[in-house]
Design brief:
It is a single chain. About 15% of the residues lie in helices and about 35% in strands. The chain contains two helices and seven strands; from the N terminus they run H-H-E-E-E-E-E-E-E. The radius of gyration is 15 Å and the shape is globular. The chain is mainly beta. The protein has a four-stranded antiparallel sheet with strand order 2-3-7-6, with no helix packed on it. Strands 1-4-5 form a three-stranded mixed sheet, with no helix packed on it. The two termini are about 20 Å apart.
């Protein structure tokens, strides 16, 4: 989902930086959506991002993240405005999985393998340039375009 999301919502700079290594497999990506207590109910997410100058501070936890331990980057959803209805106020970021404040822990399965992970974000800094901007038209149905 990351490549189509970048193609649709990424800036020219984001596309230039991230698409080729994503397509070639030079950089592995993960999706950071599910959370403890919310599961796949994205509207119930608790992970927060607060603006701090030209950066965002990420704090929270994601779970059942496939291959996070092998990923260079992740597409993360975080609550940026808790004052609006829960289906709004959510922003997508492109996060460096090796940045300070990002911790990836394996979730071991009965087989002993650990392809899933839980990820913790404690004051992890994400540049504003790695925030995905969704255009006003992005929410419109295709039939209206």
């Amino acid at each position: 989902m990351v490549a189509p999301t970048l193609v649709t919502h990424g800036t020219t700079e984001q596309k230039s930086r991230f698409l080729r290594p994503l397509f070639t497999g030079e950089e592995i990506w993960c999706q950071l959506f599910s959370e403890p207590g919310a599961g796949s109910d994205v509207a119930g997410l608790a992970c927060r991002a607060e603006k701090d100058g030209d950066e965002w501070l990420l704090n929270g936890q994601k779970v059942w993240t496939t291959l996070a331990h092998e990923s260079a980057f992740g597409l993360i959803l975080a609550r940026t405005n808790p004052e609006v209805p829960k289906h709004r106020g959510i922003t997508a970021f492109l996060v460096d999985m090796r940045a300070p404040g990002v911790e990836v822990r394996p979730l071991f399965q009965a087989t002993g393998e650990a392809e899933f992970n839980e990820c913790f974000f404690v004051d992890a800094r994400v540049p504003d340039s790695q925030r995905l901007a969704v255009s006003a038209r992005a929410g419109e149905s295709r039939s209206r375009r």
